[in-house]
From TrEMBL:
SMART domains: DEXDc, HELICc
Pfam families noted in UniProt: DbpA, DEAD, Helicase_C
Presence of the UniProt keyword Zinc in the record: no
EC number: 3.6.4.13
GO BP, one annotated term: response to cold
Name assigned to this protein: RNA helicase
Keyword Hydrolase (UniProt): yes
Residue ranges that the Swiss-Prot or TrEMBL entry lists as coiled coil: none
Top-level enzyme category: hydrolase
Signal peptide extent: none
InterPro entries: DbpA/CsdA_RNA-bd_dom, DEAD/DEAH_box_helicase_dom, DEAD/DEAH_RhlB, DEAD_box_RNA_helicases, Helicase_ATP-bd, Helicase_C-like, Nucleotide-bd_a/b_plait_sf, P-loop_NTPase
Source species of the chain: freshwater metagenome
CC annotations in GO: cytosol; ribosome
Domain DEAD-box RNA helicase Q: 17-45
Lineage, highest ranks first: unclassified sequences, metagenomes, ecological metagenomes
Amino acid sequence: MPFSARALQALVCLVMTTFADLGLSETTLQALRDVGYTEPSPIQEQTIPALLEGRDIIGQAQTGSGKTAAFGLPLVEYIDPEIKDCQAIVLTPTRELCIQVTQALRAYGEPKGVDVVAVFGGAPIRTQQAQLRAGGQIVVGTVGRVLDLINRASLILHDCRFVVLDEADEMLDLGFLEDVEKILSRTPSGRQTALFSATMPPPIRKLADRYLYEPEVIKVEAKTLTVDTVEQFRLEVNQKDKPAKLVEVLASEKPTQAIVFARTKIRCDQLFKTLRDKGMNVRALHGDMSQGSRDGVMLSFKGGRVPILVATDVAARGLDISSVTHVVNFDVPVSPDTYVHRIGRTGRVGRSGRAITFVEPKQQGELEAIEKHTGVSMTAWNPGAKTAAAPVEEKPRRHEKPHVDKKVPADGPWAKLIVGAGKAEGLKPADLVKAVTSAAGVGGEAVRDVKIFERFSFLSVPEGDAKRIIEAVSGSSVNGTELSLEPVGADG
């Protein structure tokens, strides 16, 4: 009996272990080798072949699943570098995500000579207009700025054959769906469309029904995210007692860094004031703040200068910080998918994390839905509470030293870092090596795999010293350019 096409595709996915199996060109495979990717994630395994076949897709996956490469690699394959017009557009809800996606697409498209232009609010529009006049085969942009540039006739989408809507549920939360539809109406009817969303509320489903043609639905559960690395607790509390209980929880847990999730902007501000008045070093992050204020808060939190952040779901989407040790759900999330997304902010890159969810008596149904979705029964929280399974402890590896002096073992674990500067700033490999060795006090053997691209660079350092090197080198200056280092994430 012959297999169906879907059965064959599922069978193929079972045996795929490399990017070469997915149908990508050698040029794109070289780009993947340059950024250190070796094996495709589940969302990439399923999405890349479908997009290369020209199909519309709906991808439902959490942050950290690798969805940027899932749509970005086929997108780069489609681009004709000889044609300077906009051939693809990626819409993002926030400036932070726009920048993150742009950096990834530039890395993927570098060997092929693909020009990627980022357009977003809070930056001079004239500069972005000039960049679009000079090229921009792929445009990555926030919804408002893209629509503004279209209305000014600075962005023409007549030849745009590929459209990506990234984190569509956040666009919904920010009230952007009407503008998204206006943008889609300016693109060719024969376009290929990919929609990605961590959750799938009814308005997003309606959008997909209206603008996507027979889409293939690809859903990837991030099971290991919630089970293996995050201890999950519940705390039953009456609504009026929740602010005081939050103060007690934070005082007891003593987090290195914590994100407290609130459902509304008003609640977010209230909790910020409550914790601040208790003498805590805390900041708030929500959509009503100016872009400048949001940037300042995010930089302070990412830099470790602020240990506690009170945020709404939308505002926290751009945060991907490995040092977050705790997540507190002050309000029960509106859906199990949102819960998974929230607690995924801790327990990252092999570290353990703790998630504590406040549950009001009337919310037992929501709690049970979350536990069924994650397959984990939450433990009742009390001071010093532990789950049945002890948290993963970070033990020093056999070949690691607490500090690197002059020699680094060749077989030790290494961490790949991205530097926000490259050839455009006159950066050379020797400059990076010198910057690291001087600022962090390590030998030259502690820096390897240095690669300089046009607007950013990569290097590898001993994993055990990565955090210290990032802190020491970030902010230092090379050739008049201030360096910023970050670990390379899975969602690049």
